């Protein structure tokens, strides 16, 4: 069938042998999703944590569906935590995450949305709404697909959580890595919650590992999105002289 965003994850799951998709009972506070399949994985039931934002709920369902459909995953009960849902290190949890990401934010639906558009925080938020996914999951899926030299830095309380870049166009390694403080020169945190700055020019040597001699050949701009609870995100963009 022809699928448009938002990807109908429950409908898809129900067409593959999943009999029921329902909210977890209150007792399971730190569990995001549970899969109860039979041994042959001919049928199964998915539970998800409905206390989470809609994007996370959809990701949890996609993740459990991954365990159900990936042939090498045994037909056994899975209880998946938020740690499991953020793993990308090659085990079964990370395979289920990769499955969910490709199902819910598929390249063939994202690429047309990026065509002829300039990537910025507003576009990322629009795509998150369109695909009914979190801003973070959406940004992570979009960054590698962009035709611009973009990178993204996820922050909590002025410390870097992690960064991610478009390896095709953004060739330089970032200087701001996990648990690093942000450069002192960076001062746009006066923004209020849920607001976005303009792109401002940043000091290249504060953010990128580059040779001193190369710094004058291009410029670096950053746009900041201040979210809730101390979370914020910086979208970085390298522009070369034309
Ligand atoms: Zn899992």
Give the tally of β-strands. Answer: 10
How many helix segments? 7
Number of domains: 2
Question: Which small molecules are bound?
Answer: zinc ion
- The whole-number mean of residue pLDDT values reads 92
Q: Fraction of residues in helices?
A: 25-40%
What oligomerization state is this entry in? single chain
Radius of gyration: 20 Å
Biggest sheet layout: 6 strands, antiparallel
Q: What is the CATH architecture assignment of the largest domain?
A: Orthogonal Bundle
Q: Low-confidence runs (pLDDT<50, min 5 residues)? A: none
The proportion of residues in beta strands is 15-25%
C-alpha geometry? elongated
H/E series: HEEEHEHHHHEEEEHEE
- CATH-defined fold name of the largest domain: Arc Repressor Mutant, subunit A
Would you tell me the structural class of the helices and strands? alpha+beta
CATH top level class name of the largest domain:
Mainly Alpha
Distance between the termini: 44 Å
Would you kindly provide a written description of the structure presented here, covering whatever features stand out?
By secondary structure, the chain is an alpha+beta fold. It has two domains: 9-104, Orthogonal Bundle (Arc Repressor Mutant, subunit A); 144-239. 27% of the residues lie in helices and 24% in strands. The chain is built from seven helices and ten strands. The chain has helices at 9-14, 54-69, 92-104, 107-114, 121-131, 135-142, 204-207, and strands at residues 18-23, 31-37, 44-48, 78-81, 150-156, 159-165, 195-196, 200-202, 219-226, 231-239. The strands form two sheets. Strands 5, 6, 7, 8, 9 and 10 form a six-stranded antiparallel sheet that branches. It has a four-stranded mixed sheet with strand order 1-3-2-4. A hairpin with a 4-residue loop joins strand 9 (219-226) and strand 10 (231-239). The radius of gyration is 20 Å and the shape is elongated. The structure holds zinc ion (ZN). The site of zinc ion (ZN) has 7 residues, from helix 2, strand 4 and helix 3.
């Amino acid at each position: 069938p022809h699928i448009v965003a938002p990807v109908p994850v429950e409908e898809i799951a129900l067409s593959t042998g999943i009999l029921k998709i329902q909210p977890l009972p209150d007792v399971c506070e730190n569990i995001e999703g549970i899969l109860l399949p039979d041994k042959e994985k001919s049928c199964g039931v998915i539970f998800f944590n409905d206390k989470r934002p809609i994007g996370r709920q959809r990701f949890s369902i996609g993740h459990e569906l991954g365990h159900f459909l990936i042939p090498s995953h045994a037909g056994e009960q899975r209880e998946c935590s938020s740690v499991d849902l953020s793993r990308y290190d090659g085990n079964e949890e990370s395979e289920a995450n990769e499955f969910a990401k490709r199902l819910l934010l598929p390249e063939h639906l994202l690429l047309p949305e990026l065509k002829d558009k300039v990537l910025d925080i507003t576009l990322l938020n629009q795509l998150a709404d369109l695909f009914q996914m979190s801003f973070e999951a959406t940004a992570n899926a979009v960054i590698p697909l962009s035709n611009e030299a973009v990178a993204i830095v996820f922050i909590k309380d002025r410390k870097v959580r992690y960064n991610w870049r478009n390896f095709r166009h953004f060739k330089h390694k970032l200087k701001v890595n996990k648990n690093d403080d942000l450069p002192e020169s960076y001062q746009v945190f006066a923004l209020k919650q849920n607001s976005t700055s303009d792109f401002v020019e940043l000091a290249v040597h504060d953010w990128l590992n580059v040779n001193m001699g190369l710094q004058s050949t291009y410029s670096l701009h950053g746009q900041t999105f201040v979210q809730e609870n101390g979370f914020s995100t910086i979208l970085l963009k390298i522009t070369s002289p034309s």
